[in-house]
């Protein structure tokens, strides 16, 4: 850890109202499909300067509305998230680096569909800030690009003019605001 963390020691809980986890994937070569998780949870524990982040998202909370067939295929279908068998996605860090210049890197294990794989993300860190009610907040903004096939999401359809209907790479962004537990 590059930054002094003694003032960071403690447990920080996710402020769900001010946090988002989104994903984006190229669709039919002309646009980017985006969705987010409505139900997420995260805890950052910093003990003697060593941080550990745990996070989870409820698959059923993915923001896909109409048409209902698309939601059913993506959320419940075996080609994608298979929510009936695997209702949540989880992450547990193995290494976190919060640098003096405000950059952050986080590595850990991401479990989707019961399959756990090592991932890493990079972004920024906002050090402790006192909020209007006297609480202490920190921020993490992290981005990663993942190949969905790594978690068995290998559905594909060829386009009539060539190419794939859905990108293999998925961009994931987490914008986390966490409050220090008193």
Quick overview of this protein structure:
This protein is mostly beta strands. Helix content is 5%, strand content 55%.
The number of helices is 1
Integer average pLDDT: 94
Distance between the termini: 24 Å
- Overall domain count: 1
Rounded radius of gyration (Å): 18 Å
Say what oligomer this is.
Answer: single chain
The largest sheet, given as strand count, sense and whether it forms a barrel, is: 8 strands, antiparallel, barrel
Question: Please, could you describe this protein's structure?
Answer:
This protein has 182 residues and is mainly beta. The chain has one domain: Lipid/polyisoprenoid-binding, YceI-like (Lipocalin, Beta Barrel), CATH 2.40.128.110. Helix content is 5%, strand content 55%. Strands 1-4-5-6-7-8-9-10 form an eight-stranded antiparallel beta barrel. It starts with 9 loop residues before the first strand and ends with a strand. The model has no long low-confidence stretch (mean pLDDT 94).
What topology emerges from the helices and strands here?
Layout: E1 10-14, E2 20-27, E3 31-36, E4 40-47, E5 50-58, H1 68-76, E6 88-98, E7 103-112, E8 115-130, E9 136-147, E10 166-180
Antiparallel strand pairs: 1-4, 1-10, 2-3, 2-10, 4-5, 5-6, 6-7, 7-8, 8-9, 9-10
